[in-house]
Amino acid sequence: EIVLTQSPATLSLSPGERATLSCGASQSVSSSYLAWYQQKPGLAPRLLIYDASSRATGIPDRFSGSGSGTDFTLTISRLEPEDFAVYYCQQYGSSPYTFGQGTKLEIK
Amino acid sequence: QLQLQESGPGLVKPSETLSLTCTVSGGSISSSSYYWGWIRQPPGKGLEWIGSIYYSGSTYYNPSLKSRVTISVDTSKNQFSLKLSSVTAADTAVYYCASMVTWYFDLWGRGTLVTVSS
Prior knowledge:
heterodimer, A: mainly beta, 7-stranded mixed β-sheet, 4-stranded antiparallel β-sheet, B: mainly beta
């Protein structure tokens, strides 16, 4: 089973700043099959990024994903107030499909 | 616009079987474009993939739950279902159904909280 470790656990930033969230895998994720999700309190997760760097439909271009192998990054170029939430990465290169423990992005 | 909605009891007794249904609207569950999955999230914790199904009935389960999980599909009702047997308090969670493209979750239901308690 591939274990995903997200860092930092909590990130405190201000609107307008740049956010960089990391996701490390215990073994290489095949074909860069990695997704990112955003979850706000009381709501279901929402797909942001798939295949490591492809934005899902309707996702603003301030969200970008990069990486391959065991190291992946989600970048939010300029934080908007609605971006403060918990972010999860998920690998789907090998079963069982696993999620990271999440990074909470909070307002500083 | 594809939509998914979970339904089922919100309270299940220990040792009994949790049963949930996901109703798909705005599209056909028999679409070759999608798999259909279940994910759960214990209160205040992270996400865990439970298992998935294709409209043909092919199933894929998380080994950690495989012995207790059954996922089935009813194409006539545009629904797929989850059964989790021998539940304990550790199975208390919000259960989500979702559509899957390859093996990521592109659209989620709103989720339903299932509490295991006597």
